[in-house]
Structure formats: C-alpha cells, structure tokens
Amino acid sequence: MKAPERIYLIDQGDDGIVWCDDPNPAGDVEPPESVEYMRVPPRTEDWREDRGPWHVAEDAERVWLFSADFHHDVRLYVNGDFSTHGDMLAYAQSLAESLNKVRRPEGV
Asked: Which of 29, 33, 37, 53 could pair covalently with 24 via S-S, beta carbons 3.0-4.6 A apart?
C-alpha cells in the first residue's frame, strides 16, 4: 500500500484531532477545520540550499522575504492575523534576521 500524496489534519472538537486522506470524510467538516499536508518530492541532484542573504520588501498590501541567491529567485509571502501592516513587516524582518543567522557548511 502506498502512502497518500495528501493527508488532512481534522479538528473534531471534543472528539480530538484525526489524520485522514479525505478533507471531509463525514461531509460535515468546515474548511478551516481541515489542514492539508502534502508529501514533499525527493530533491533532485541539482537542488541546493538557498543561503541568502534574506531581505524584506513590501507594497501597499503585501510583505515578503526574498533572497539575494539568484539560483532560486524565491519570495516567501507573509500572511496572517496582524493588527497592522507594520506588525506584519516587523514579523517578516524577524524571520529574515533568523534566516540570516543560520550558516551551514557548504554541501550540508
């Protein structure tokens, strides 16, 4: 038997939390009560870690982290329950600072 590509963590309230391969097995689960998890495919031989440095950018609506490593050209958008745009920006800056502190030996 092969493991499913996607599984779901479902909050059943007083009955606890269950894992399932169906996001709504009984037909009574609201979307926020089901969290999807996906299998990560294996890395290819040319995969390499993004070593940064990481920076924060923003526009009127969004905040994101991006890396100066042009091999990936990646953006990580920050989204969540923040009181203000400034709080979201401060959170992103904290993430960037944490990522920039991590230095691993080449090849690890």
From this structure: 29
